[in-house]
Amino acid sequence: MGSEGAAQAPWRPFLAAVCALAAVGALGLLATAYVALRTSQGLSLDRAAANAVSSPQLVLNRLYDGLSRVSVGSVAISLLVCVTLAVMRRRFDLALGAVVIIGGADLTTQILKNDLFRPVDVGQGPNSLPSGHTTVALSIALAAVVVAPSAWRSMVAIGVSATAALVGVALVLGRWHRPSDVIAATFVCVVWAAVGLLAAALVRHRPPVVAPKVSVHVGALIGASMVGGLLVSWGVRPEAGLRDLGLGILSLGSIGLACAVSIAAVAYIADRHLG
Q: How would you class 123 by CB atoms within 10 Å of its CB: exposed for 0-12, middle for 13-18, buried for 19 or more?
């Protein structure tokens, strides 16, 4: 009885962590979708936030060029790279986790956007929440930090956080999406990151480890902050007026923060429980 309880003990903190991650993602997605799609105040604020920041045309052209490279092919290549890295480490559990995260998040986003979510104001056009481009970028980022060796995770977090944040911000600057579309996509990815971590743990031949000392991955915050500095250097500015300044900081800052925090949280759980 005592040995059975000891064997089950490592599962408790791990399950608590993934359940909390999934709950945050699900509740955040529902709240974002309700406010942005079902309330007139949310619709109005979302439009205003999307139009609060402007960018030089040369910068927009660069961003459009980058966004055009997000395709089914790029997703397949990224997934193949993640799986290959995990297999080279003989971590087939992490390879499965990466497949679940990328495949589940992208499929869910398409179903939600095309079949389930509908705005209360049908005159605004077809629904664009959650953002498919953001889901692609962030799901790949989360899969990358899961399969990366523990010693590399901080460095990987910097790069993938910067990439995911830049994609999300570019979608708003280019008027492809509103801020709520991007934030909703991050919550979708968080839910599937929890599912992917759980799937990886279930196919292991031993219970999850509980590393006593694991640092918070500030690399994700560094990566997102680098994007902010880059955009300012490129001439991205809020429109005239303090209101637009506040909305610009709110919209772009929340995107960077959402990407960074989600990546840092997943990296922390992977470090502490999966190795």
A: exposed
* CA atoms of 109 and 209, how far apart (whole Å): 32
Q: What is the pTM of this model?
A: 0.91
DSSP single-letter state for residue 70: -
Q: What is the DSSP letter of 211?
A: -
Residue whose entry in the numeric block shows the structure tokens 């909703």:
184
Identity of residue 6: A
Q: Measure the CA–CA gap between 249 and 64, rounded to whole angstroms.
A: 22
Could you report the per-residue pLDDT of 217-253, keeping only the tens digit for each?
688 888 998 888 888 787 777 766 556 677 878 888 8
3-state secondary structure at position 54: strand
| Number of residues assigned to the chain | 275
What's 213's DSSP letter? -
DSSP at 122: G
Residue 103 in contact with residue 75, Cβ under 8 Å? Answer: no
